[in-house]
Amino acid sequence: MNALDARVTKTREKLTAALIDLMNEAPLEKISVQKLTTRAHVTRGTFYLHYQDKNDFIQQLMSRTLDEWLESARVRANLVATDPVKWQMTASGEIERFSLIRALQFVAERRDLFLLLIRNEHFFQFRKQLSERLTLGVKQFYQQLQSEIGELTVPIDLQAAFLTSAFRGITSHWLEVNTMYAPHFVDEAFQSLTHRELTQLIVADWFSAD
């Protein structure tokens, strides 16, 4: 990273921290560019070098955070020909997967930002885009494995909706309880709850078939 990139990153971090701080005091519509730059100790001129207005700053923040988050969780794997399907992590694998542990570690390092993006009503677009990207990832994953696993009992769109909602719900709760569980524990719990036989999801019987 050169000196210019470092300054841009520092400015972005200061503005993000200022936004988080200000939103503990007032709703988004009450926060002006002037208030944002004053709290961040950044000049308005510097702000407008990078953003058209407050909305542009918010949109870039959401887009960049989502891109970096999903990229941090992306891993590659080779399929091992066993039953049930197993995975062998490799540097040059052919199947792309989503590492829940890496995703949670990324969130834990930016807890205040994700509390804002995932739980605050003003950032519904972030949650919508997250669901869309995760759903796409699940469907692409299935397309790569379709020849191995054959026809699905439960349609892929329902599976994708279930897994996406489960991930969002667990992440939101994890943030709410101050990330009290270690990422690897949450990963194991998620894998158990979403296991194909659902042997651990006894409470699913609450949803009666009658």
From TrEMBL:
<dbReference type="Pfam" id="PF00440">
    <property type="entry name" value="TetR_N"/>
</dbReference>
<keyword id="KW-0238">DNA-binding</keyword>
<feature type="DNA-binding region" description="H-T-H motif">
    <location>
        <begin position="32"/>
        <end position="51"/>
    </location>
</feature>
<dbReference type="GO" id="GO:0003677">
    <property type="term" value="F:DNA binding"/>
</dbReference>
<dbReference type="InterPro" id="IPR001647">
    <property type="entry name" value="HTH_TetR"/>
</dbReference>
<dbReference type="InterPro" id="IPR050624">
    <property type="entry name" value="HTH-type_Tx_Regulator"/>
</dbReference>
<feature type="domain" description="HTH tetR-type">
    <location>
        <begin position="9"/>
        <end position="69"/>
    </location>
</feature>
<dbReference type="InterPro" id="IPR009057">
    <property type="entry name" value="Homeodomain-like_sf"/>
</dbReference>
<protein>
    <recommendedName>
        <fullName>HTH tetR-type domain-containing protein</fullName>
    </recommendedName>
</protein>
